[in-house]
Write a structure and sequence with these properties.
- By secondary structure, this protein is of the alpha/beta class.
- It has a single domain, classed as MHCK/EF2 kinase (Protein kinase-like fold).
- It has 5 helices and 9 strands; from the N terminus they run αββββααββββααβ.
- The longest helix has 18 residues.
- The protein is globular.
- It is found in: Basolateral cell membrane.
- GO terms for molecular function: ATP binding; protein serine/threonine kinase activity.
């Protein structure tokens, strides 16, 4: 969980560096960090902690791309999350997709990552490859995709498209990390207040 969210966070930082200078783009979504802590005196010795998000919690994208979500399509935060997904998809040549974007306003948490079966630069996501296929089929570009010059996924020449180069920064390459705690043994997240 920490590995996936913090990897997605690194992509979001690069996206922000490219999007923020674009005139009229405005605020950019941020994926908050998540930390794994050890609690040796507890029955379950590990827990994850992150900043508490206060306000209306909204799902801007869902793991199953077939679900209709008007907040995603009609809100500024939702459109910028869709643009972030498109940006990551394009920068990784369709090999990786950040999905399940949700949070309060522009602060996001509990994200997922889908990769092709072979992974991407040694990283394998925690979501099915079908999420990439669904995104490619269902994504509708918006004004923020246009502002960043992202190519439409509806193009009939998509498979013939040349790989895009990353001009700003190198995309994150994460080493393979094994989870210490089985998912069944985890207890619900503990939250830290941002105060």
């Amino acid at each position: 969980e920490c590995y996936v969210q913090n990897t997605a966070r690194e992509y979001a930082k690069i996206y922000a560096a490219e999007a923020e200078p674009v005139e009229g783009f405005g605020e950019v979504p941020e994926i908050i960090p998540i930390f794994l802590i050890r609690r040796p005196a507890n029955n379950i010795p590990y827990a994850t902690v992150e900043e508490e998000l206060v306000g209306e919690f909204v799902k801007y994208s869902v793991k199953d791309g077939k679900e209709i979500n008007f907040l995603r399509r009609d809100s500024e935060a939702g459109q910028k999350c869709c643009t972030f997904q498109h940006w990551v998809y394009e920068k990784t040549n369709g090999s990786l997709l950040v999905t399940d974007l949700q949070g309060v306003g522009m602060k996001l948490t509990d994200v997922g990552i889908a990769t092709l079966a072979k992974g991407y630069k040694g990283f394998k996501g925690n979501c099915s490859i079908s999420f990439i296929e669904q995104f490619r089929a269902l994504h509708q570009c918006n004004k923020y995709c246009e502002m960043l010059g992202l190519k439409s996924l509806r193009s009939s020449h998509q498979k013939q498209r040349k790989p895009t180069s990353t001009k700003s920064k190198t995309l994150p390459i994460s080493p393979t990390v094994k989870k210490t705690v089985p998912k069944k043994a985890r207890e619900p997240r503990d939250f830290l207040s941002s105060e």
